[in-house]
Amino acid sequence: MSDANIVIIDTGCANVSSVRFAIERLGYDVTISRDPAVVLAADKLFLPGVGTATEAMKNLEERDLISLVRDVKQPLLGICLGMQLLGKSSQEGKAAVNCLGHVDADTTLMETGNLPLPHMGWNTVTPVNNHPLFKDIPENSYFYFVHSYAMPVGDYTIGQCDYDKPFSAAIQNGNYYGVQFHPERSSKVGAQLIKNFLEL
């Protein structure tokens, strides 16, 4: 077992067990917590999320996690909705909701032409500038997606996907990282990406 201190932030809006098992399979112990002392002492943080941004931000507020997540200095990986929460705002829900603001981007409903929503299933991700999060992952690898909202491609994009139009499949700003896909459900390449994040 690695002695790294790995914490999944308990947002109350995610099924954290699959993420925990994916990390444990790599030989790491994992703590699930919303305790500020535990979160701030972590070496690496995970911010998973499912549902709507409105509900997720409400949960973060009720659990006094917004300022905590905004202030962490260690690497943090947002997964699926967790990635979208790193942006400025999200249109998912009855009205636009302000998010954490670590990435200068808004999450909007995907424009997919004749393709169905949600974007669900396997799709390829193209890394940008050989980003270390995609180290040792073969070109044109497939990752598993389930979403209807996405961030556009921008300076923060470290991995791009196309579903009629391009969107950000992975992002970074400083110590904040995000992936729109589910690495914990993406077989060997997903496990490699989690390993890469843990070894950053």
TrEMBL record:
The task this protein performs is described as:
IGPS catalyzes the conversion of PRFAR and glutamine to IGP, AICAR and glutamate. The HisH subunit catalyzes the hydrolysis of glutamine to glutamate and ammonia as part of the synthesis of IGP and AICAR. The resulting ammonia molecule is channeled to the active site of HisF.
Example of a GO cellular component annotation carried by this entry: cytoplasm
Q: Quote the PROSITE patterns the UniProt record gives.
A: GATASE_TYPE_1 (PS51273)
Question: What is any one GO biological process for this UniProt entry?
Answer: L-histidine biosynthetic process
Give the chief site where it resides. cytoplasm
What species is given as this protein's source?
Enterovibrio norvegicus FF-454
**The keyword Nucleus is assigned to this record:** no
- Alphabetical keyword list: Amino-acid biosynthesis, Cytoplasm, Glutamine amidotransferase, Histidine biosynthesis, Hydrolase, Lyase
Q: Does the keyword Cytoplasm apply?
A: yes
Q: Which PANTHER family match?
A: IMIDAZOLE GLYCEROL PHOSPHATE SYNTHASE SUBUNIT HISH
Q: Which SUPFAM superfamilies match?
A: Class I glutamine amidotransferase-like
Where in the sequence is the active site?
C80, H182, E184
Instruction: Spell out the protein name for this chain.
Output: Imidazole glycerol phosphate synthase subunit HisH
